[in-house]
């Protein structure tokens, strides 16, 4: 996990006349509208191929034929292609897009929250709480047939909210609300919960259960259905609208707390709002997909290099980029091996680590 510098050590971004972060000297950015159009087309193509490719290939024309018939209200036709496309692959492809978009948004918001472009959305410990809740449901029998009837997703979301409340209380001790205290509270609680989660994994009743828990902890979209898609599909657009409404305030906060306060923005209030949005959205995403590493760290950083640091452009582009990335990654996870499916988090780490090192090398070389 990247080290987050103290608030006082963060260098304010260059700003333009409208109080938006400016571009560094010598850096040419892509027009956000052009990039969003390209990413939108890429997402549509990726979704089509995600539904078409698999153990049984389906022609892309058949994919669109089935989807359009279903959307128009026609009854499903006999055969396996309708079942494969509508019931199995399409919900999974859409869930990958929604989760990827959500991770891109969460990463962008957390990096603004702590004013560091290398911050991770799981830095605040929320994903650790969600993972603990899900593992507890799987190992201790608190799922649909258990005493609480939460189910894995419900237990993960409950764990995320409980962790959010605990981190919030610790970060608010003494009446302050600094990014450094928030990060330290999140890291400390997250590490504690991760250790407890590992202990629960060791207590799993059989080897198959242990493998299932570990696979979920590394990220998986295998449980996708229209029912599991509903909540994140509603939460991600709402989070995007909320963050876009505060985009100008996010820009001013990147200049430093004193400058932001002079421009009429309350840094403490804005951080509270960001913390709530990122915590709830992270809990929703982890509940349906497990812990998927690196997307929330890499996507905003790459998009910032492409379109600049203005959050009015950065937020929607990060959501689209994250959606495309995770749909493509899920295709790789399903089709790379003949005998088994790869965990999504493994592939995102293998792609994300070299890509991030390359981007860092470019940025450090430019600033040298």
TrEMBL record:
Biased composition (Polar residues): 1-13
Superkingdom per UniProt: Bacteria
Chief location: membrane
Membrane topology listed for this record: Multi-pass membrane protein
Region listing for Disordered, in residue ranges: 1-26
Regions crossing the membrane: 32-54, 93-114, 121-142, 148-170, 182-202, 214-245, 274-299, 314-333, 342-360
Alphabetic keyword roster: Cell membrane, Membrane, Transmembrane, Transmembrane helix, Transport
Location relative to the cell: Cell membrane
Pfam families for this protein: FecCD
UniProt record similarity statement: Belongs to the binding-protein-dependent transport system permease family. FecCD subfamily.
Name by which UniProt lists this protein: Iron ABC transporter permease
Higher taxonomy: Bacteria, Bacillati, Actinomycetota, Actinomycetes, Kitasatosporales
């Amino acid at each position: 996990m990247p080290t987050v510098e103290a608030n006082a050590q963060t260098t304010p971004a260059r700003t333009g006349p409208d109080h938006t972060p400016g571009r560094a000297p010598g850096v040419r950015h892509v027009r956000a509208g052009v990039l969003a159009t390209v990413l939108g087309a890429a997402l549509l193509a990726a979704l089509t191929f995600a539904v078409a490719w698999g153990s049984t290939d389906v022609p892309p024309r058949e994919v669109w034929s089935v989807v359009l018939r279903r959307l128009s209200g026609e009854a499903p036709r006999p055969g396996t292609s309708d079942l494969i496309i509508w019931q199995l692959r399409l919900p999974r492809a859409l869930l990958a897009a929604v989760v990827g978009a959500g991770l891109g948004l969460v990463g962008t918001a957390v990096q603004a929250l702590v004013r560091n472009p290398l911050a991770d959305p799981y830095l605040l410990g929320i994903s650790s709480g969600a993972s603990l809740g899900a593992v507890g449901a799987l190992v201790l029998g608190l799922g649909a047939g258990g005493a609480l009837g939460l189910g894995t997703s419900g237990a993960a979301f409950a764990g995320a909210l409980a962790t959010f409340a605990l981190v919030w209380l610790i970060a608010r001790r003494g009446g302050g609300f600094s990014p450094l205290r928030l990060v330290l509270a999140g890291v400390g609680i997250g590490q504690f919960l991760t250790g407890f989660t590992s202990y629960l994994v060791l207590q799993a009743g059989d080897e198959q259960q242990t493998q299932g828990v570990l696979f979920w902890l590394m990220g998986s979209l295998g449980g996708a259905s229209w029912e599991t898609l509903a909540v994140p599909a509603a939460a991600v657009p709402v989070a995007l609208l909320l963050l876009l409404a505060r985009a100008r305030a996010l820009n001013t906060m990147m200049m430093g707390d004193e400058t932001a306060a002079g421009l009429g923005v309350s840094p403490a209030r804005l951080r509270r709002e960001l913390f709530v949005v990122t915590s709830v959205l992270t809990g929703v995403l982890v509940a349906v997909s497990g812990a998927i590493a690196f997307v929330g760290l890499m996507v905003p950083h790459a998009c910032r290099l492409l379109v600049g640091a203005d959050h009015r452009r950065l937020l929607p582009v990060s959501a689209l980029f994250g959606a495309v990335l995770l749909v493509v990654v899920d295709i790789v996870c399903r089709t790379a091996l003949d005998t088994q499916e790869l965990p999504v988090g493994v592939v995102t780490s293998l792609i994300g680590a070299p890509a991030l090192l390359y981007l860092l090398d470019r940025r450090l070389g430019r600033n040298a």
